[in-house]
Write a structure and sequence with these properties.
Layout (H helix, E strand, L loop, with lengths): L4 H9 L2 H10 L6 H5 L6 H13 L3 E3 L8 E3 L2 H11 L29
Antiparallel strand pairs: 1-2
Helix pairs in contact: 1-4, 1-5
Length: 114
């Protein structure tokens, strides 16, 4: 089991369902029911995904009367960005030198569109 912060963040981001949940939360708060709507899975399965995101610090919940809306917290993403920047320079070259780095996509596309 991942114990350090970066490992928890990367593990949370590794799953396409969790990335889709984060994409939805980037547009604003949502309840678990609202987050579960586009998926063909049970509420407990969605709740398990949310727990992984919460342990990574990417999702926060607050009490609002009877509701417990979820919201995105981007702070942990900066930990991952900082680590990734060690390997990719602004010019797109990898650590191995010119031409060894990954090709930047012209346009990023999400795995799941909500």
């Amino acid at each position: 089991m991942a114990t350090d912060e970066l490992s928890r963040i990367m593990a949370a981001l590794a799953d396409p369902t969790r990335r889709a949940i984060l994409s939805r939360l980037a547009r604003g708060e949502a309840t678990v029911t609202e987050l579960a709507a586009p998926f063909a899975m049970t509420m407990p399965a969605v709740s398990r995904h949310l727990r992984v995101l919460e342990r990574a610090g990417l999702v926060r919940r607050r009490q609002d009367a009877q509701r417990r809306p979820c919201r995105l917290d981007t702070t942990p993403l900066w930990t991952a960005v900082s680590w990734l920047r060690e390997f990719v320079t602004e010019s797109g070259e990898g650590a191995g030198g010119p031409g060894d780095g990954p090709v930047r996509p012209a346009e990023a596309t999400p795995d799941v569109i909500l």
